[in-house]
Design goal:
The structure holds 2 protein chains of 2 kinds. Chain A is of the alpha+beta class. Chain A has a 5-stranded antiparallel β-sheet with strand order 1-5-4-3-2. In chain A, strand 4 and strand 5 form a beta hairpin. In chain A, helix 11 crosses helix 12. The relative contact order of chain A is 0.12. A 5-stranded antiparallel β-sheet of chain B has the order 1-5-4-3-2. Classes of the chains: A alpha+beta, B alpha+beta. Chains A and B meet through helix 1, helix 3, helix 9, strand 1 and helix 14 of A and helix 1, strand 1, strand 2, helix 3 and strand 3 of B.
Chain lengths: 344, 152
């Protein structure tokens, strides 16, 4: 019985024994995008006093939990409640001494969505997009100058709509957010009633179709070649050049891993590149270089020659970035086109 | 009594183990060191884990030569030579994914590193051997990036 009591106590005490450290959890989970000190980077800046004082703990917790589907920020479902609270406490440590979190009313905002739609188109769409889809791209390095701290958030994102209260959106519109391009619309001449209308319109975005990652389960694109190994390599290179790519490198799969004389020669990787395309893709998501530059491998096994590549549509699901869908589809078509042409 | 003990033990184990399990599609870390230092650390850590760096792809050079502005941006490909040879023979469908890359790029005075979590590429691991291999890679690649993050 004493053993059972001990185990029960141990079980109950576990969350306390494993008391999470917010700074370390932040460094592990958030800093990569939001910066070690919350200045932003791939992700939005969090250490802005005007941001931290205008959002509730509930908003921050819900944001960590829901993420932003299709907007890089993942949903951190694997974190325990205590860990999420510890991260929020760490964010709060960046608030200037003496500052407090605004106490928002909890009731819904009621306005005229039709009027709000017109006002949104006039005042908000230039930054947040015609349908509230937010600014394009992410990342300091490729998408925007370093003096611009933030890409406009997507207001039609289900993660945002589930996290932000009406009153939070209203307060942001009324006060703006110092340190970002978001201005006070009261100071811009709108009345409180106008702002209520915009908030009511923003809520209608929840009826949109949303976004889901692609479900292409084919990880590898593969095609048989009717030609010899050497002929197929040349055909792949010709086809890539024909599609406006530059051949930047050729090597065996084992290059760099074995002495050159010991490399098996039945695989030949053709690397090709279109730097304009890479530059555009990196602006959408600086992490996407993970599957660049483009490559097709020619493989010979038992007299049969094949061409193989990764499937960009299969990998795109890893990125939680809806903007990558189009370039990944383009790359899929490019790989298939090159392999088809090389096998004609 | 014994059944009660077993139940409590399994509860304790389940609770304790599940707390540490994360299902990240990508492993991403930030090093607070500059790019050259982080690149050097990354290559040391990869080697310490028994892997060989096969090649560094200098994406930034190509972008700059083509007239685009970019910070330092490179890919580090790595593998265990014997393992790669064995896998490419027995599982040719893995060839387009080998050697595995880690993307490393500068963001001002800091450096970001990203790689895919092998355990999330379910369609590539179609038997138990490959599932276990991808799980092992997942643990090792996460550990490599964590060590770089901590500057070890």
């Amino acid at each position: 019985m004493r053993f059972v009591s001990f185990l029960l106590l141990a079980l109950l005490a576990l969350p306390l024994a494993a008391a999470p450290r917010g700074a370390e959890l932040y460094a592990q989970n958030c800093a990569v995008c939001h910066g070690a000190d919350g200045r932003g980077g791939v992700g939005v800046p969090l250490a802005l006093p005007s941001f931290l004082s205008s959002v509730s703990d509930d908003y921050l917790i819900a944001t960590i939990r829901h993420g932003r589907p299709g907007r890089v920020m993942p949903a951190f479902s694997q974190l325990r409640d205590a860990e999420v609270r510890a991260i929020v406490a760490h964010l709060r440590s960046w608030m200037p001494a003496g500052s407090t979190v605004v106490n928002l009313a909890s009731g819904p905002v009621k306005g005229d969505a039709a009027r709000g739609k017109t006002l949104f188109a006039e005042r908000c769409a230039v930054c947040h997009g015609a349908h509230g889809e937010g600014g394009h791209g992410t990342g300091v390095t490729f998408s925007r100058p370093r003096d611009l701290p933030i890409i406009a958030p997507a207001l039609n994102n289900p993660g945002f709509l589930a996290s932000a209260s009406d009153q939070m959106i209203k307060t942001t519109l009324m006060n703006g957010r110092d340190g970002t391009p978001m201005v006070s619309f009261l100071k811009q001449g709108l009345q409180e009633r106008d702002i209520d209308d915009i908030v009511t319109y923003v809520r209608t975005f929840a009826k949109g179709p949303g976004w889901k990652p692609g479900n292409d389960d084919t990880p590898v694109l593969e095609m048989d070649s009717p030609y010899t190994f050497a002929e197929t390599v040349e055909a792949v290179k010709r086809a890539a050049v024909g599609k406006n790519f530059r051949i930047i490198r050729e090597q065996s799969l084992e290059n760099g891993l074995f002495a050159e004389t010991e490399e098996t020669k039945e695989t030949h990787i053709v690397y090709f590149c279109n730097f304009n395309f890479i530059n555009q893709a990196l602006a959408l998501d600086p992490r996407v270089g993970l599957f660049m530059p483009c490559r097709i491998t020619v493989v010979e096994r038992e007299g049969q020659v094949k061409m193989m590549s990764i499937n960009p549509k299969y990998l795109s699901r890893l990125f939680n970035n809806a903007e990558l869908d189009k370039p990944c589809e383009e790359m899929y078509q490019v790989y298939m086109g090159i392999m088809e042409e090389a096998s004609l | 009594m014994m059944r009660c003990r077993s139940l409590l033990l399994s509860l304790l184990l389940t609770f304790g183990l599940s707390a540490g399990v994360a299902a990240d599609e990508l492993f991403m870390v930030r090093s607070d060191h500059a790019f050259p230092e982080t690149m050097s650390t990354l290559q040391e850590v990869i080697t310490r884990h028994g892997y060989t760096v096969s090649r560094v792809q200098r994406v930034d050079i190509g972008l700059t030569d083509s007239g685009f502005k970019t910070d330092m941006y490179r890919l580090v490909f790595f593998a265990k030579p014997a393992e790669l040879r064995d896998l490419s023979q027995r599982y040719p469908h893995l060839i387009p994914y080998l050697p595995w890359p880690i993307t490393i790029f500068a963001e001002g005075e800091e450096t970001l590193l990203v790689t895919a979590n092998p355990a999330e590429l379910h369609a590539l691991a179609h038997n138990d051997e490959l599932k276990q291999l991808f799980q092992r890679w997942s643990v090792e690649y996460r550990a490599i990036l964590e060590e770089v993050r901590k500057g070890e």
